[in-house]
Specification:
By secondary structure, the protein is mostly helical. The chain contains four helices and two strands. It is elongated. The structure holds zinc ion (2 copies). One zinc ion is lined by residues 52, 54-55, 57, 62, 64-65. Residues 25-47 are annotated as: Disordered. This is RND transporter.
């Protein structure tokens, strides 16, 4: 019976969702082994070096931080002289350019990136 199979799967799925949301709502105990707190900070994507918090672009693609990437952009003619960054990364000229990087971040971490500091 296909109907019962599907129903069973749905029930399992909702149970899993309940478990996940239940866990997320529960604050983990503050008192834990002191050496376990260290690993949490290194796993933080904003400090892991992948994401350039300042410019809201992945570091290796950040034309303001990576000189080699900036050079490649200039060679391609993708450069905003006015703001000294890749035209495709010039959120000042075109704010919608930021969206593709926000999507990249969301795809990787499943949440919105931290607000750009610049
Ligand atoms: Zn940067
Ligand atoms: Zn510009």
């Amino acid at each position: 019976m296909r109907f019962y199979k599907m129903f069973g799967m749905l029930a399992m799925l909702s149970a899993a969702i309940l478990m996940v949301s239940g866990c997320a709502g529960d604050k983990p105990a503050a008192e834990k082994g002191s050496d376990e707190t260290e690993t949490a900070t290194t796993a933080d994507p904003t400090h892991g070096g992948w994401w350039c918090v300042e410019h809201a672009i992945p570091e290796e693609e950040c034309s303001m931080c990576s000189a080699s990437y900036a050079k490649a952009c200039k060679e391609k003619g993708d450069w905003c002289e006015e703001h000294n960054r890749a035209e495709s990364q010039c959120f000042i000229c075109d704010a919608s350019q930021a969206e593709k990087y926000v999507k990249l971040y969301e795809a990787k971490y499943g949440k919105k990136p931290p607000a750009a500091t610049e």
